[in-house]
């Protein structure tokens, strides 16, 4: 049985105070959330400690948005797995397209970050996906196959989540058709040694499309950006309705 994981990626949004305010409104809306749905909040580094401390007993896991591959060193602006663990972090996003586009992440550094996360007992969420021009050129499968094959060298497939995030659908409101996302994710699953890995869809997931996306047989959850910033909207997403 594959685990359903619904993660909010807050990107560079929310101070500690805003994080606590979010929780005050969000936690009360989880009373009817079906068992078996793992809820993760991937907050900025500065809010991780406050988030962990405020969650005691709540069924939410804390996630980070980046990890360096070494335990310590002269790497200004980076953070290690042990530092994240100390803050109560359980998940970490690796290889998000924004990290690849703006901060120079490559399949090789993504691979190192995945290995480091697992070594520290964190569950990495590996993001893969194609640009609009790659999709239009019919290169989606080839692009994702390379990202998966290079990214997963020496990575334990029993301790991993994958997120399929078509880059053209991120923050655009332009969601991938549910059937298309299902097909790409089915293709990703065929590349894996462990076919039971949780594979999420990400890219303009919102309350109005989450039910259709989650009804697809290959999709095991969502990685949600903008719509995870408001408690009501993210609560509706984690409480998605099954058909
Ligand atoms: O990590 C989340 C993705 O980048 C999706 O962001 P979005 O839901 O705002 O499109």
Automatic annotation (TrEMBL):
GO MF entry, a single one: triose-phosphate isomerase activity
Full protein name: Triosephosphate isomerase
Enzymatic reactions: D-glyceraldehyde 3-phosphate = dihydroxyacetone phosphate
Compartments (UniProt record): Cytoplasm
Binding site residues for substrate: 9-11, 171, 204, 225-226
Classification via Pfam families: TIM
NCBIfam families, per the entry: tim (TIGR00419)
Subunit structure, as described in the record: Homodimer.
HAMAP family attached to this UniProt entry: TIM_B
Organism: Phormidium tenue NIES-30
Family: Belongs to the triosephosphate isomerase family.
Entry GO CC: cytosol
Gene Ontology process terms (BP): gluconeogenesis; glyceraldehyde-3-phosphate biosynthetic process; glycerol catabolic process; glycolytic process
Pathway terms, separated by semicolons: Carbohydrate biosynthesis; gluconeogenesis; Carbohydrate degradation; glycolysis; D-glyceraldehyde 3-phosphate from glycerone phosphate: step 1/1
Cited InterPro entries: Aldolase_TIM (IPR013785), TIM_sf (IPR035990), TrioseP_Isoase_bac/euk (IPR022896), Triosephosphate_isomerase (IPR000652), Triosephosphate_isomerase_AS (IPR020861)
Keywords assigned: Cytoplasm, Gluconeogenesis, Glycolysis, Isomerase
E.C. designation(s): 5.3.1.1
Cited function: Involved in the gluconeogenesis. Catalyzes stereospecifically the conversion of dihydroxyacetone phosphate (DHAP) to D-glyceraldehyde-3-phosphate (G3P).
Catalytic residue list: 96, 165
Main subcellular location: cytoplasm
